[in-house]
Amino acid sequence: MKRILVAEDDSHFRRALLETLYQEGYLTFTVEDGARALENLKIYKPHLLILDLKMPKIDGIELLKRIRTEQYSVPVMIVTAYKELAKDPEVAMGNIVTLMVKPIDLNVLKNKVNEMLKEVKEVKIK
After folding, report:
1. Total H helices, total E strands in the chain
2. Which pLDDT value is given to residue 125?
3. 75-124 pLDDT, tens per residue?
4. How far apart are CA 58 and CA 62, in angstroms?
5. In Å, what is the CA distance from 46 to each residue of 13, 72, 77, 102, 111?
6. What is the Cα Rg of the chain in Å?
7. What's the CA dihedral at 63, 69, 73, 79 to 10 degrees?
8. Distance (Å, rounded) from C-alpha 25 to C-alpha 47?
9. What pTM does this model have?
10. Are 22 and 28 in contact (CB under 8 A)?
11. In this predicted structure, what is the pLDDT of residue 82?
């Protein structure tokens, strides 16, 4: 079963993602900030990270830096309401598979996730 980690500070959207991905048969874990995302990457070794860029403690840009520094191979889907943040150089250097701007149609997101995870085998996380 493929594992997905969702890092999203909006509790309503986080819950909607959890329910949508669960219905698709994915083992989904959710966290509300980048610090918890970093901890949970090591614990759950997800096949996909769905990442918001604006979060408390460690934001998405900083989390991408740390993922790159640690050489984690997890693919990342960015979901953000802040389209201008997607132009940050750290985003360009990350393992970004796709970027979606909120508000997001959950059916479109579900289809993208299904498509992305067809290709993903195991990820390298220390």
Report:
1. 5, 5
2. 66
3. 899 998 887 766 766 666 666 778 899 999 999 999 999 998 987 776 66
4. 6
5. 19, 11, 12, 23, 18
6. 13
7. 20
8. 13
9. 0.89
10. yes
11. 81
